[in-house]
Sequence to fold (262 residues):
Amino acid sequence: MLPTPPSSTKSLIRIAIRDFLIWYLIVDTVKTAAMADPYFWGIASMSSPGPNATYLPSIITDIAPLTKLYRLLLSLLAVVTALSIIFTLSPLFFVLLLPSLNLHNYTRAPLLEPFLYAPYWGSFTTSVLDKGLAGWWGKWWHQLFRMGISEPSRFLIDKLGWNPQSQKAKLLQLFTAFAISGTIHAGASYTSFNPESRPLSGPFAFFFSQAFGILAEQFVFKTMGLSNLMLSWPRSLRRAGTLMYVLAWFYVTGPWLADDFA
Fold:
């Protein structure tokens, strides 16, 4: 099910203001936590001892795998909160600010229509817990670049005369999409003016590897028959198994991106 946009302009503005304030507080909290960790200053490695912060239990700071997991989750939260607060600016600018200056009349675009401002994030439970890594990138994560990332492979498939539903066409779509995504983020890394950035072995490797993660997921759960075995399990247990795979994959590949961000 696709995210549902607000039902009216007033509710859109109210939700945008509420979300902006909430995400602002979360961004501030995440930044405070990150600044207490030398890893996020770029002076310590992912596997280095945890930050000397009183708010963290010793089990996280003393056990290396848990320290790594904490840093990866904080990196993810930082990305999600930063993007989310930016997303809230769109309705605030186009629906609240422009009409107050009477500037919305200079365009024919229906900027005041709530359907233009559907939520950017999908449902985590139905997307990730039910669909795994493919659901993470295809349904839960924001789809701002979806058109630019998906259309090149469709163009190639059409020119090659392949059946869009064939296995080779789906593989081309999968690897092309993540190659383009990796190139976009590698470009951002390259232009960050950081002499220690690693565009290819960092962002590009992370995003391109997600294609292999999705294929591995399909092999484990479908080709090996694990999905059929899990059908007899309680739904909560099936979801827990899917989540464990997603977390394990990001635990391995996440540092390639997080280290470049840090």
Remarks:
- The radius of gyration is 21 Å.
- The first helix runs from residue 9 to 35.
- The chain has a mean pLDDT of 86.
- Residues 178 and 210 are 7 Å apart (CA to CA).
